[in-house]
Write a structure and sequence with these properties.
Layout: H1 8-28, H2 32-61, H3 67-89, H4 97-116, H5 122-128, H6 133-154, H7 157-161
Helix pairs in contact: 1-2, 1-4, 1-6, 2-3, 2-6, 3-4
The structure holds fe (ii) ion (2 copies).
Length: about 170
């Protein structure tokens, strides 16, 4: 895997493009059943992406990326996770299912913008300040493959629960 893993930014950007495609597929899907299936795929891909950012990418950015920007990004992850959890739990009877996916899409668009923004975004800052993107890419690819395999086998719930990041210290 070490020889074939993309660098960290390429891997994360590929994830962003893949989930954007899924949101488009969701909009184009003709039936509620097809939409529900795609919504689950969106949820799983965002859970895996958020885990590898929270556990590997953002920690590597500490001291290299503006602290306030990183904190904001963690809070945006947690905010998105509220909707991701509801989308995963939603049944056919959820009249708000489409609205939830739409709002999640808007949240993710904003968040991806903050990560990818030229010069001032998190990715630009990290690269400019010397985060080793090749080594990190290997770690991200390994973690991603592991989480995807586990979710395929055991479901996403455990991984969703592991995402909450912005606890207050006393908890
Ligand atoms: Fe991201
Ligand atoms: Fe992120």
């Amino acid at each position: 895997m070490a020889d074939t893993a993309p660098d960290a930014i390429t891997l994360l950007k590929d994830d962003h493009r893949a989930v954007e495609d899924l949101f488009k597929e969701y909009e184009d899907a003709a039936t509620p059943a097809a939409k529900a299936k795609i919504a689950d795929k969106i949820a799983v891909s965002l859970i895996v992406h958020t885990r590898i950012e929270n556990e590997h990418f953002y920690p590597a950015c500490e001291g290299k990326v503006d602290e306030a920007d990183l904190k904001e990004a963690y809070v945006e992850h947690d905010a998105a996770n509220v909707l991701i959890a509801e989308i995963l739990a939603s049944t056919k009877g959820d009249d708000f299912a489409e609205a939830k996916v739409k709002v999640l899409k808007e949240e993710i668009e904003h968040h991806v913008g903050e990560e990818e923004r030229w010069l001032t975004g998190i990715f630009s800052q990290a690269k400019r300040h010397g985060v080793d993107m090749d080594a990190l890419g290997v770690k991200l690819a390994e973690a991603k493959a592991g989480y995807e395999a586990d979710i395929a086998k055991n479901g996403p719930e455990v991984h969703l629960a592991a995402l909450k990041k912005t606890k207050v210290a006393a908890e």
